[in-house]
Design goal:
685 residues; alpha/beta; Rossmann fold; 3 domains; seven-stranded mixed sheet; seven-stranded parallel sheet; 26 strands
């Protein structure tokens, strides 16, 4: 079959793949196209972790085992475990059956690459004025690819990595760096060097018994698994976007008010509002407009992994790339992951700390807090000189490039630790920070105040260092749902934060269903809601639904009747970091993690049980003390209702609420709301 490519376009990755194929095509082993099948998989999705894909995944197999003669023998050494003797051998030829190579493509010129003291390749990004560790980046991509494609194989594939420097010829690199450079670096005219690198990397992991007096037999995958890899059956696909995805994308693509945008990089900007008033959309609108018009790199940070997954999927639907070196983009990441990377790379989190967490994850808060405080203390010693701080960060080439983004967007800013806030302001400068703060949505006690030392104003023409905007309109919920939420808040909260919320008059209708007991036992209601979804004008998929469950419960505790592959499990700490692969999947999330999310229909399972949990839970934050220290019963009750309202502001069209006990405190409140609005609430006994 010869050389094949999954994509043919003008991208750097395809240009690189074509040149590699040309070089290999000059070798004897690749002269006959019928003797091999070599697929260049361009930017294949390999999950949704820190690394989404390698630049190229090269998968090649020979019809018959092929003997490869090496121009320079591989100097091999190892220890025979049976005799504990060191064994050395010169390998002059190998048998090659197939190989899988993760290729990191760099288009840098020779004066913008260097090898550091650890023999790692670093490349220079002019826009960020930063030398980045490409060897580390290449290995992370290799491990991500290996972990993902191995899921359906019977044998873990041996995947190796190559860094391909397209714009540098071999002689240029040797003149600068000498002949002794890492075997995984290949250049524009390396020819046979590609195959030698592959063979050398394979041989490094050979056992002594497979080396002595033999021609090593090298392969990435067993023959019975190889077809699975080269057919790309493992490739992950995106769910089809629904009409609400398109609505969200259109909202993000809409330009913000001109005076909002003109404030960018001149002063801090803060959006305030209740749940469902469109704070996150405002941030993403500015991010999109900045990316399109100014080609800037934007970093979006939030605590909520379910929200991260949702926004990442929206960015992929819109074709917006990740922040990547000289190319502009929008990177959506966890604030814990972002700061952990900085603290580790600067030495505030040691390898011993990470080893400790491998076995004792309960020490995370302790280690994280201590490292934040140490880092903040050092940054204060630099007298808040941002140029000096940037130089301090550039001393390590291990940072993710997002550290040097132009703009940073902060979601749920009311819950950030003071140390996180301080470090972020030091890195980016207050004028490059946009923050969304949820009114009544703080989970750590006293809400964090951003830019407290800055002069601030909400007025359009006022000169200030921070501009804030308060959003009142319930943009997410249909009109009846807004009425339901306002009535519920009036009956439960001691303050009047929901008084100014405006139900959405443009989106009429909306329905509330209160069910005594298990929703899944209500066959008629389930059938009606399924028909409602199917009959909705435009595509509404199962993925648009949102099931919210109390702490300590999991999806398998419910008789939902769905196979595991159709459950997106946002409750599980590992599973919630994976992107949904089908629009037929249904999202399940814990009440504590529902902020920022939305569902066409939300299912609030056993809401009274959750209310009791919040009422009885003492929430203690390591930075801001105990929220309920010496609290009265009324304060605890108010706090539990506030948390409940966060969940009740998630739906778009309808919400289902189930109760364990209709005579519980929450159940009685819902009966009052039902009595006030019987036309918008169905009560099912």
């Amino acid at each position: 079959m010869g050389f094949r490519f999954t994509i043919q376009d003008n991208s750097d990755e395809f240009i690189a793949a074509e040149n590699i194929a040309r070089q290999l095509g000059d070798l004897t082993y690749f002269k006959d196209e019928d003797s091999f099948d070599c697929l260049f998989c361009i930017e294949p999705r390999v999950g949704n972790g820190k690394v989404k894909h390698p630049d190229i995944l090269m998968i090649c197999g020979f019809n018959k085992p092929t003997k490869v003669q090496l121009r320079n023998p591989i100097k091999w050494s190892g220890v025979d475990k049976s005799s504990n003797e060191e064994i050395k051998a010169d390998i002059s030829s190998v048998i090659l059956r197939n190989f899988i190579i993760s290729i990191e493509v760099k288009m840098h010129s020779a004066d913008r690459v260097r090898i550091n003291d650890s023999n790692n390749l670093e490349v220079y990004y002019q826009k960020q004025d930063y030398w980045s560790n490409t060897t580390q980046q290449s290995r992370e991509a290799m491990f991500a690819a290996k972990a993902f494609i191995a899921k359906k194989g019977s044998f873990d594939p041996k995947v190796q990595s190559i860094i391909y420097l397209h714009n540098i010829k071999k002689e240029q690199f040797q003149n600068i760096h000498g002949t002794d450079f890492p075997i995984e670096i290949r250049l524009n005219n390396h020819g046979n060097g590609f195959l030698e690198s592959i063979c050398h990397q394979f041989a490094q992991y050979m056992k002594p018994k497979n080396i002595l007096n033999k021609v090593p037999d090298l392969f990435s995958a067993l023959d019975k698994d190889f077809d699975h890899y080269i057919s790309c059956d493992w490739k992950q696909s995106n769910p089809r976007p629904s009409k609400f995805d398109f609505k969200r994308m259109n909202a993000i693509a809409k330009k913000v008010e001109d005076w909002h945008f003109k404030d960018l990089s001149k002063r801090m900007i803060e959006y305030r509002g209740l749940g469902g008033t469109g704070k996150t959309i405002k941030l993403l609108q500015i991010a999109h407009q900045t990316h399109i018009e100014n080609q800037k790199n934007i970093l979006f940070l939030t605590y909520n992994w379910a929200l991260i997954i949702g926004i990442r999927l929206t960015m992929e639907h819109m074709g917006i790339p990740n922040t990547n070196g000289e190319k502009s983009g929008i990177k959506v990441d966890s604030c814990n992951a972002f700061f952990w990377g900085i603290l580790r790379n600067l030495g505030y989190i040691s390898k011993d700390d990470e080893k400790k967490l491998d076995n004792h994850s309960e020490h995370f808060d302790e280690i994280y807090q201590r490292a934040l405080e140490e880092c903040m203390s050092y940054l204060k010693s630099l007298n808040d000189d941002q140029a000096t701080i940037k130089e301090f960060l550039r001393e390590s080439s291990e940072h993710d490039l997002s550290v040097f983004s132009d703009i940073v967007l902060i979601d749920e800013g009311q819950d950030w630790m003071p140390e996180e806030q301080y470090i972020l302001e030091c890195i980016f400068g207050t004028e490059n920070i946009l923050v969304a703060c949820g009114t009544g949505q703080e989970t750590r006690g006293v809400p964090t105040v951003w830019g407290k030392h800055l002069t601030s104003s909400w007025k359009q023409k006022a000169e200030c260092e921070k501009r804030f905007h308060t959003l009142h309109k319930a943009m997410r919920m249909r009109g009846n749902l807004g009425i339901f939420v306002k009535t519920f808040a009036d009956l439960t909260l001691t303050d009047e934060m929901y008084k100014r919320m405006e139900p959405n008059s443009e989106a009429l209708e909306g329905r509330v269903y209160v069910v005594e007991g298990d929703y899944f036992a209500q066959k008629d209601l389930r059938k009606d809601l399924q028909e409602k979804r199917i009959n909705e004008v435009g595509d509404v998929y199962a993925l648009d639904l949102l099931h919210i469950i109390p702490p300590k419960m999991k999806p398998s505790d419910f008789n939902h009747g769905l196979p595991d592959e159709l459950i997106w499990n946002g409750v599980d700490k590992k599973e919630r970091k994976k992107l949904p692969t089908s629009e037929k999947m249904v999202r399940w999330i814990n009440y504590r993690s529902c902020r920022g999310l939305e569902g066409w229909i939300t299912f609030n399972h056993y809401l009274d049980e959750y209310w009791e949990y919040e009422f009885n839970t003492q929430k203690i934050d390591i930075a801001q003390g105990s929220l309920f220290e010496n609290a009265t019963e009324e304060q605890k009750r108010n706090e539990a209702f506030r948390w409940t309202l966060i969940a009740l502001t998630r739906p778009i069209d309808s919400t289902v609420i189930t109760l364990r006990d209709k005579n519980s405190e929450l159940g009685k409140i819902l009966q009052e709301v039902h009595a006030a609005h019987p036309n918008i609430i169905d009560w099912i006994s």
